[in-house]
Amino acid sequence: MQLGIRLHDTTKLPFEERIADVHRLGFTCGHLALAKVIDEFPTTDEALTPGLAMYIKNVFARNQVDIAVLGCYLNLATPNKEQLAKNTHRYMAHLRFASWLGCGVVGTETGAPNEKYAFTPECHTEEALKTFITNLRPVVKYAEQMGVVFAIEPVYRHIVCNPARARRVLDEIASPNLQIIFDPVNLLEMENYKDRQAIFEETVDLLGPDIAMVHLKDFVIEDGKMVSVGCGLGEMDYTAILKFMKERKPFIHATLENTKPENNQQVKDFILKKYAEV
User: Fold this and answer.
1) Is the pLDDT assigned to residue 104 strictly greater than 90?
2) Contact 150, 144 (CB under 8 A)
3) What contacts 260, CB < 8 A, 6 or more positions away?
4) Which of 57, 127, 133, 148 is most deeply packed, by most CB within 10 A?
5) pTM of the model as a whole
6) Is the distance from CB of 119 to CB of 158 less than 8 angstroms?
7) Tens of pLDDT along 107-146?
8) How big is the chain by its Cα radius of gyration, in Å?
9) Nearest 5 degrees, angle CA 146-CA 147-CA 149?
10) Residue 209 pLDDT grade (very low, low, confident, very high; cuts 50, 70, 90)
11) 268 near 228, Cβ under 8 Å?
């Protein structure tokens, strides 16, 4: 495992200083969401040139930090056709940029069939899934052209809400450039969190060969709701997940989520200790 961090969870610093700080903290990779990390210059679609890619690539390389994933979390199921066209264009710009960066994965979640990107019961319908698959196809085709993996992240409150629906998307698109980001906690909600070990086993069984990277976080129950926190600060047992990574995914990128600058070292030490023990 190569352990990293979601970069916008780190101390807010000028871009070059921030990546240097990530190296100083002992992380070897990062989840880069351009607009959430970079303030000094624009990261609009037209700004994503080969020159900017080379600059960013060199900053990361100088600090021995990989770009594990280029995050672009937009709604591919919005009913607003104009917004869908903009979102598709943004995804393609990220895929092109990732190819210049030397970053293998552009990551996304799977949206909702409304303009607010909000959870409703319609998210889990057959119609919503068909819409997502239809709108995903041209993006994956472009990923193939760019030689980059487009990785979807199943999330209970989104359209691809469980391992079976994710498997269906992979099978219907049938592209080696469409893979999975495995975030165990994102598969959980109040309705199913007590069954989490069975859900994780099903995920590995159905999606294991197609998992490109892993997100690591934890959760607690507060006032009848699930709240995401850093690893080791909640109820998760990582044994089976880390064992899967260790045995089947050598040197896989795994990035911490929901950390804070005050606890990212505690969380890093916890997960590295658990990984060494499995």
Assistant:
1) no
2) no
3) 9, 230
4) 148
5) 0.96
6) yes
7) 999 999 999 999 999 999 999 999 999 999 999 999 999 9
8) 18
9) 105
10) very high
11) no
Percent of the chain with pLDDT over 70: 100
Checking 138-141 for CB contacts under 8 A at 24+ apart, the result is 138/88, 139/76, 139/88, 139/91, 139/92, 139/95, 140/173, 140/175, 140/177, 140/178, 141/175
* Full DSSP string of 3-68: EEEEGGGS----HHHHHHHHHHTT--EEEE-HHHH--SS--SGGG--HHHHHHHHHHHHHTT-EEE
Give 265's pLDDT tier (boundaries 50, 70, 90): very high
Q: What are the residues whose beta carbons fall under 8 Å from the beta carbon of 83, sequence distance 6 or more?
A: 75, 115
The owner of tokens 């969401």 is: 33
Which ranges constitute the DSSP H helices of 208-263?
239-248
